[in-house]
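Weekly structure sync, notes
Attendees: PL (lead), two postdocs, one rotation student
Agenda item 3: pending single-chain targets
PL asked that the sequence for the first pending target be pasted directly into the notes so everyone works from the same version. It is reproduced below exactly as submitted, 504 residues in total.
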Amino acid sequence: MFKILLVSPPFCDFYATGARNEPLGLLYIRKSLEGMDGVEVHLHDSLLSGRKKRLKTPSEFDYLEEIYCEDRSLFSLLNGFYRFGDSCGGIIGRIKSGGYDLVGVSCMFTGYYPDAEKLISLIKKETGSLVVAGGWAVDAGGTRLFEKSRADFFLVGAGEHSMPLLAGALMGDMKLEDVPGLIYRCGGAVRSVPPAQWAVPDYFPGRMDFYRWNGKRIAKMITGTGCGHACPFCAVGRYRKRSARGLDSIDRELGYLSSAGVEVVDFEDDNIFSDPETAPALLRILKNHHAGGISYAAMNGMTASNIRGRVNDIIDAGFIEINLSLVASGLFRARPFGTDVIDEIVREINGRVKTIVYLIAGLPGSSPADLMSDIIHLAALPVTIGISPLYLLPGIPDLEKIGLPENHALCRGSALYKFGDGFSREDVASAWKFVRMINRVKAGPDGSVEEYSENLHYFRKSIREKTWHRKLKNGNWARGFSFGIDLPENIDIMTCDGRMAGFK
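Predicted structure, written out during the meeting:
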């Protein structure tokens, strides 16, 4: 029996988004391997345990010391570096006790690749297992990344299609050079097989365990893969064109998830509702299962232009949160729509469900003034503002021009490493803090009126002085880092329930 263990590895960062950790790609790969003769497959989801351990902040992040520090204000950022998920030692122990022939390690983000490579190195050092790595970080890094890796193989592209072929090759059923997307070593040289374009499968994976979000059982799902756009900050459309899944398969999976007690389905599509011909039928399917108790979200973000004229149907179908990816507007439009479409959709939503609109701070081609214009515009709408510092991805020309760090750990957004022209690290962090306070005002006071007023006082004082004040554990306030970006001391803010407010 050829034994395979698929691993969703732990990662280290200043924060984590727990609701989106389910390893959907590995679940599909497990499903694709389960029907193979002579193969036994298991999955180890390191994040399912919910373990979190505080670590000493690595020296490569020392430059963030003044930005991520003790701060108990309402406009604080991050503080503390953590490992999220099981320890590498525990994973190694499972591999040894299970006697696995092949371990597949998921590498979904370039910024976390060093954590995955650490696990890969330990597997190679302490076990006799072969190791294959795949995921978006592998797609982006390709042979350049493989040359520095201890992994035996990389798989570029859709693992649910290529992993069974690799397993077959390792069992002697075919040659390695016939496995699409495979990167491997042969005679001291690195060889690469071109990946194939695969359609999204119509089967769906079973579940044994579930994550929770706001106390409810949640599962990820897709209605298709890839994207037809080529936004200048994103890799998805460059590697995989849109491939839609069959509606019957979607219907059957929702029925399965409902019977398993799932209460919320989060669609991870990069472009849900992108096909105007199938969108009405898809919405009818969603509405039918909503009647049975399932609600929906799309935390990866919807393309606003896809849902124009469909907002009422989307809410009726059971969406309890609408996430819109604006990214940037104005002179630099990173998405195939602008604030005019956002305004139209927000009016249609009319406060019926929570609405989050996302921006990316520090994009090349944009400016601090553009970013602030978007923030001020969204502040006056009944939406929560999501802001993400620019994260760097290999293979994206606009981002490559910025200069990618040799240490891939610095590619993550929380690293605040490098941005487009005109943005300083302190300016991006300051825009982030500004949004934090806007969202607090939108949500309304939390705690005593005195504490809320005190925070607003120091927030406005920070803006006037262009130096942030932070609240210490003992209740005192101290001066923090300075910034250059122009932040208005007061703006129009609409709360999420439609009331007007401000920094007053």
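Discussion points:
- The chain has 14 helices and 23 strands.
- The first strand starts at residue 2 and ends at 8.
Action: rotation student to compare against the earlier draft before next sync.
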